[in-house]
Amino acid sequence: MLDEGRRRARRGTDVVVAYAECHARPHTEEKLEGLEILPRTYREYRGSTFSEMDLDRVLDRHPEVALVDELAHSNVPGGRNAKRWQDIEELLAARIGIVTTVNVQHLQRLGDDNTTELGLGLALSRGLAEAMSGTLTPEDTPGGGLTMVLSLRAAAAEEPAVLA
Fold it and tell me: Please, how many CA atoms are within 13 Å of residue 97, restricted to the half-sphere of its CB?
């Protein structure tokens, strides 16, 4: 996601990092260098403070493309949407392009205990990319593995995008 954002920024696209979770990985943090990072919002929940994407700030800034990590994330209660994908729907409806990530562990059949097969997750991601005229590209994950990056275009003015 960050590599794609950097490529687009180098080509002159107005790109912001709306939310990126680095998990204290220096390699990932380095990829943020040179990109505009929007401040997060903070919410209290059950005695702890959590950071979240500031949806209103992204909408007010209105970049051409927003980088939004963790599509399947559940937002901390207190925001306007329960899920990050709902935040992304609002950004797409506002004609902001999205580059996002999704962990394939979140793309399993209900009741499926098999966590080793990636076929369903990749099939769903590919189908979403095709349905939304987006792209699905692999990136190496530091420490091993592969991350599939899903890039979606902003909605056309006459037909708002809907993820369901």
Answer: 20
As a whole number of angstroms, the distance between CA 51 and CA 62 comes to 21
Given this model, what pLDDT does residue 46 score? 93
| Cα–Cα distance measured from residue 94 to residue 97, given in angstroms and rounded to the nearest whole number | 9
Cα 98 from chain centre: 7
The pTM assigned to this predicted structure is: 0.70
**d(Cα 84, Cα 144) in Å, to the nearest integer?**
26
Q: List, in sequence order, every residue forming a beta bridge with 26; answer none if it has no partner.
A: none
* Contact between 28 and 6 (Cβ < 8 Å): no
- Between CA 142 and CA 80 the distance in angstroms is 34
- Specify whether the CB–CB gap between 119 and 96 falls below 8 A: no
Q: How confident is the model at residue 71 (pLDDT cuts 50, 70, 90)?
A: confident
d(CA 70, CA 103): 7
Q: Look up residue 129 and give its amino acid.
A: A
Which amino acid is located at 131 in the chain?
A: A
Question: Which residues are bridge partners to 125 per DSSP?
Answer: none
Separation CA 115–CA 20 (nearest Å)? 25
